[in-house]
Amino acid sequence: MTRSSTADTSPPPAPEPLPHPVVDNHCHLDVARDGETVDVEGALAAAAAVGVTRIVQIGCDLPRARWAVEAASSYDALVAGVALHPTEAARLGGAGGSRAALDAAIDEVEALARTHDRVRAVGETGLDHYWVEEGDTDGRAAQVHSFRRHVELAKRLDKTLVIHDRDAHEEVLRVIDEEGAPQRWVMHCFSGDADVARRCLDRGAFLSFAGTVTFKSAQPQRDALALAPLDRVLVETDAPYLTPSPFRGRRNASYLVPLTVRAMAEVRGDDLEELCRAIDATTEAAFGGAW
Question: Which CATH superfamily is domain 22-30+41-286 in?
């Protein structure tokens, strides 16, 4: 007997618009449910209606990186980030793959970043010790190799580095220290505590907070948010993932950013409009200027 699901999968209602526009600096518009098509114009219009007027579209493997470039070239509200996600690096270069295949894919990422001026970021790259476990030594080695190459690429092309860090804080900072941080780098969906935040900030990072900051279990992230300087704080969705409370578990989208921003203002004790203005300006600084 199959138990039917009663989970609500409908789109959450639009929140009250923000008093000043902000940027969703990390989104995956290309990720749709099975059988759905991607309605980019609808997503952009819904976001703009609540004050989320610009988006950084992130591509995490070669097909999605190509899509990100095409979308950013078609819509003024979008710029692109291109990279191999750490789990994609492990798939290509770990057991069953080859270092040559991984390097060839990174070479194509470089070509996309070098050729298209709508590409503002190299990312998301980094390390993931949740999906690629300790016993997968080949996969973890491939992640580190890929991360190092992406760091070098961001520096050489003067692009913003966007870092995915899941259960790998120490190793991420070790690679950054060994390779040298780019001029602009973002800790995407910051998941550390106040100590990790201080160490990232000391190295010049921008900290980006997602809907996770609204979760009951996220007090360490709220502590990190509270101590971060206003000119180092960004907001993102990571949509369609990480939907903020009270809609956790339903599909996320950029139009839900106001829920996260209002929670951030409460945690920090900031005036909402002041925080929005700061996020808008800081995102431009983090991603190389206005678009």
Answer: Metal-dependent hydrolases (3.20.20.140)
